[in-house]
Each structure stands twice: as C-alpha cells, then as structure tokens.
Amino acid sequence: MKRRVQSKSAMRRLAANPGGSDNSRLRASGPRRGERAIYWALAGCAGLSIVTTTAIVISLLIPSLQFFGEVPLGDFLFGTDWSPTINPHSFGVLAIVAGTFSVTLWALLFAVPVGLGVAIYLSEYASRRRRRLLKPLVELLAGVPTVAFGFFALSFLTPLIQGIWPGFLGDEPGVFSVASAGLAIGLMIVPMIASVSEDAMRAVPNALREGAYALGATRARVATRVVFPAALSGIVAAIILAISRTVGETMIVLIAAGNTPNENIFKSFNPVESIQAMTGFIGSIATGDLATGSLEYKTVFAVALLLFVMTLAMNAVSIRLVNRYREVYE
Amino acid sequence: MRPGDPRTARAEVALASARGVGTEIFSSQPRADVIRAAAFSVALYAALALAVLGLAVLVLDNLIEGAPRLNPALLTNGTSSLPANAGLRSALIGTLWIIGFVIVLIVPLGVGAAVFLEEYAGSRSRVARLIELNVQNLAAVPSIIYGLLGLAFIARAPLNLGFVVLTASLTLALLVLPVVILVAREALRAVPGSVREGSLALGATKWQTIRHQVLPAAVPGIATGVILAISRAIGETAPLVPLGAATFVTFDPNGPFSRYTALPLQIFDWVKQPQAEFQTLAAAAIIVMLGLLLAMNSVAIWLRNRYERSW
Lengths: 330, 311
What we know:
By secondary structure, chain A is mainly α.
C-alpha cells in the first residue's frame, strides 16, 4: 500500500516536471495537445455514469410528478387497495409493498442461514483445496439467469412444497405462491451473502483467532464468538445488499408469485398466498404497448420511483458499511 | 502455592508431562462445548449441501424436463405458435445482434472510465470518489428500472429509436457498464507502479505509458470483466420486458434497427404458455442458455488463471 502511494507521488512530480531539472534537452518536444484530448475523452467515459444516474432520476421523476398531480400522495403511500387498471381505480401502494416485503422475508429465511453457513465454512473450516473447488461452484449460482430461477420455482419448487406440505398448517399453496418465489430468490442470493460475508470474515486478523485458540476455544466457538462479531458490519452489509437485490428482482416474482395484490396486507405474508410485488406490477404492465402519458404509464413510473428510492437507501447503507470494514483492517 | 496462581498450572503441566499424562490437562474443553462444536459443523455442511444441491437440482430438473426437445432442430427452427415447430433461431440471432453492440459499447466506455479513475483522477480526488460511489450505486439499481429508462428515453423521445435491437443494446450496455468499470479498475490497480515509472523515465508520455505498458498488462483482468458483463447481459430478461421486444417474431433480426426477440425473452414467453409442450421447450432452452453462460464463465476463469501474472 505504502509503496503505491510513493510511486504515485513520484509519477505526479515527473508529470509536472519531466526533466526533473532545468535541462532543456529533456523537455517534451511539442505541446502534445493529443494528451489533453485523451484526458477529456476518458473523463467523458467516466462522466457517463453520472449522466446515467441523472437520466434515471429524471425519467422516473417527471411521470411520477404528473402521477401525484392526479393521485394524492397520502392515498398512494398509505392506502392498501391496489387496483390501478380496473375500475374503480385505487392506488394504495401498500398492498404491493407488502407483497415485496413478504417475498423478501421468505427469501431471507432461507438465504441468511444458508449463506452465512457457507461463508463460515469457506472462511474458517475449509482447507485451501476445498475452498478453491467449492467457492466457484457456489458462485455459479449467481450466474444463473433469473428467468431460469423463475421456471425452477414453477416447475420444481411449487410441486415440491405442495408434496411435503403438512396438513395441520392449512391449505397447501396453489400454482403461484410467495413460498415458492421466495425460496427461488433465496437460492439466487445465497452466493451474494456468502461471498460478501466471507470477504469480511477473511479480513479479520489471524491474531484474534490464534488468541482464542490459545485459550482453548473450539473451532465453532472461534467462528461464532470471535470471527462473526468482528466481521459483523460486513455481514450486515451483505444482508442489506441481498435485501436490495430481492426487492428489485422482477422475473422470479413475475413468473412464480402470481399477480394478485391483497388488500389485507397481513394476508400477503402467508406463504401459501399468491401476491403481487412492486416489480411484478411493473413487469406485467410496462410492456412495449404501454402508451406514454396514460395514467397506467405514470403509475408504473411512480411505483418504480418508490422502488428506486428504497433500493438506493439500502445500497447507500451497505456500501458505507463495506467501505468502513475495509478501512479498519487494512 | 495457592490455587489460581499461574505457577500452580505451570507446575501441574510440568509434573504431568514428566509423568506422560499430559492429555488429561490439555483436553480440558468442556464436554458441552465439544458437542456444540460438532453440531455446528454438521449445520455448516448442511448449508453448503443445500446451496450446491440447489444448483444441481436446478440443472437436472431442466435437463430431464427438456430432454425430449434437446436436439439440433431446437436451434434451427424459428418462432412458431405450434410447439412442435418452435425453435430458438430468431431468439439466438437477436441475442447475437444485441450482444455484439453491447460489446462495441462497453469495451471502450468501461475501460475508458476505469483508466480515467485509476490513472488520471487519483484515489484522493473528490471527482473520482463521487464517480466511484455513483458506479457502486448504479451496479445495484434494479434491472427493471434500466428497462424503464430505456423505454422512456431510448425507445421513445428524446432518442426515439423505437423497439429495435439498438435500443436493447444501449439499455443493456448501461446496465452492465458498472461491472466492467469495477473489474477493469481492479486489473489496472494490480499493475505495479514501477512499470509506469520505468516507462515515464524513458520519456514516454502519460498516454503512451498507459497505451503500451499498463493496458497490455491489465488485458487478462479486463477481459474477465468484459466476459462477466456479457454473460450478465445475455441472461437479463427484466429490462427487455418494457422495451417491447416482440416475442412473436417470425423473421430473423438482421441489423441494429430491426425488431427482435432474445433468448431469455423467448424462454419467458414459453414459460407463460399454458401448454405442457411449451414448458418442455422452455426447459430445453434454459439448458441451451445455461450451457452458453457456463462456457463463457469457464473461458473467463481460464483467462484469469492462464494470464495471471504475479509481479
């Protein structure tokens, strides 16, 4: 780390005064305008990310503002009756927010224990060889397209859940259910939780582990009482990132969770129910033939703006946490 | 010697080892702890098994279900409303066109941004930190929102391209650019400063140094990032849904301004159909897509291992 800093400052000195002295023979032979042009071209590439963000915000904000000109903000944010396309119109977004949270809850119930288990195993238990073999295998899951997870939920998980559903829990889930979509999303986010938390755990200095072992602690105790708390901020960051990913996931909920907003928001949390999530609504309404300027169009963008704000807030917290633990141990 | 005195313990250890019965003292972990540790490691193996089994079952389920349609006709038949005649040709050609333009867009833009952030801006500059934070955030924006951006600004006014291949390429390029930038920066950072200093000391300009020394050394890392980004772009479905990709395309897309369908969209369309034959087709098409992505990821891993240099 230190060497790099030194070399950078050396570079800067060289760039400012190429000869290192007033020896005129070592000076550049021309003004080299090309270098400036290249600098600005590269800066333009980097600046494109700012343009993208701005474009996203503007594209969401304008139709949303028009939407709130027609529908009162309070009705939108606090209503629970969601019927934006069928008369009588009603725009209580809480019905589909509940759907999103419900899917997230069931996904996390699967993904957090499994993801953290994998992370602890890879970081604290696995030998070097096993880690080299198993880590890419788990990360392959992250490369599977979401449409494949959606189909997996519909064709495998739903029948599986219906088959093993214990009768005393009431009716078994139908074709579309939160449980099946949640489980598929859970499987999808396991590698994300596992790899970000594993990074955090491996960043914990070995001296802490050795100290605990010297006091006679078992490996399980070292993992749960020493490494886990020390890596907690990274683990929390991993989970928040996974939540944000789940909230924004479209194809799996569109395929497997159904399309029925529930006015009773508690009903959405029942795993056997069919629900509508925010992304599911956007995906089912925003197809190519959606007319610009129609109320449906504006509704889609208002829901998208809410989704964007929610994920942005979570990402900001998560990025901050990740950057912080990186600084602490390096 | 009082009990609790460190000398007591030390004396005991000395005595014990003298008598050759050290095990009794050293194996003094409480029984409950040992049992708990065993249970914990069983739980860890269970978690690992669930993750790996999940992947295995996903692939096997599609393989078994799609087996009847996994034949060359799947790749050569065009779109059809009859499941017996339907195939992936139009979708594969559409995906090729889209991804071709995505590559043309993301390589210069992504590498350019990474070079600017890593070589020109310096890690302490405020602009660089702002852009870096922005890129990290963009990487986590839900993909459906990129689709809406494409719908609002690219397919319709101001760019007004309509629902064509280029619209999809531009949208997907914006979506995967953060991946390219983040990975390319890592690759540039791994090139040691001495390489740059050597070049600068010989009188090369900054750009000559980057062009002839730094970038060639970083190519394997950058290529890995580009391949990862492309495999993400191939599998993304959600952003294409609002972009009006007509899923019933009976012709082969033939250029940037052609209407199109794409591999994941075709799968989505088949998944939605009620007939069981279309479900079989969907499963077979998923196997084709997974095979394609697996091949690309393997190339990325091979590239990284083959050309990885330790400085």
